[in-house]
Amino acid sequence: MAGDPLDALRLPVVPVDPRPEFTAALHRRIEATIEGGADPGGRRDSPTVRYFVDDLELAVAFYCRQLGFEEELRSPPAFAMLYRGGLRLLLSVPGLPGAGAALSDGTVPAAGGWNRITVQVSDLGAALEALSSAGVPVRAGITRGIAVRQALIQDPSGNLVELIEPAEGYHERT
Amino acid sequence: MSTVSVRYIVDDVDAAIAFYRDHLGFREQMHPDPAFAMLTRGDLRLVLVAPVPAGHPGGGSRPMPDGTPQRPGGWNRFMIEVPDVAAAAEKLRAAGVRFRNEIVAGVGGKQVMIEDPSGNPVELFEPIRPEARLARQ
Lengths: 174, 137
What we know:
The complex is a heterodimer of chains A (about 170) and B (about 140).
Chain A: H1 20-36, E1 48-52, H2 56-67, E2 70-75, E3 79-84, E4 87-92, E5 116-120, H3 124-133, E6 138-144, E7 148-154, E8 160-166
Chain B: E1 4-9, H1 13-24, E2 27-33, E3 36-41, E4 44-49, E5 77-81, H2 85-94, E6 98-99, E7 104-105, E8 109-115, E9 121-127, H3 130-134
Parallel strand pairs in B: 1-4, 5-9
Antiparallel strand pairs in B: 2-3, 3-4, 6-8, 7-8, 8-9
């Protein structure tokens, strides 16, 4: 699994003709290191989430076209890796070798559930309208929470993605 | 914006906080309401919410407009990279943590799934050598 693109530079052989995705990933990695400040280990793990999807191509298209993810690599038919900001999203297909493989008791992983990633947007209303008109299912329209407004959309396999818009005057603290 | 947020639905926020803090190295950032807590681990922000009724001020775990409640579980999960998954698993097993499967070796590395007290999965992942990582198409 391509964890850290900088690992390529630690190998005796450096890719002569890196793929554009690799270059982009390397660029992000360097920027993240700069933003993240001192990283004594020389390594900063990207928060990584695995989603199960029934159709890899559909899922990649959804996350890249509708939510601004970038494709890092694709290993059809079972696996893809996408990035958005600091988030690494792994897509695995249930029933295929890899993370989607059945457990020893025969249980097969499945898409769905309620746990989800959140994607921050600056204008939730506009984002939801754009997604909706592109045919993306909206599971729950805009609700107001504490310090945020939020909505839930579904990917083509029914996995939830939460869109959040920070409320006026609310500043992200890290 | 380097922080990434993931929301997990849990039955008991206090029990979940203890689990993620004691076993997986999360830090509690805030726990202003019995049904809500925010933890962090590196750049990952984990938001833990218990299902709340429709009128509750916190919006993340209310029922859907059609009344469907949100519940823990499922298969989607965040991952934690560990240098030695077998050692990590042994330690967690000794501490009484539940496992959903045995360690499996995939293309990218070895992995195992544990469960939080509400049954939500967390994947522990040990990547294999960089050469192997780059061998992927």
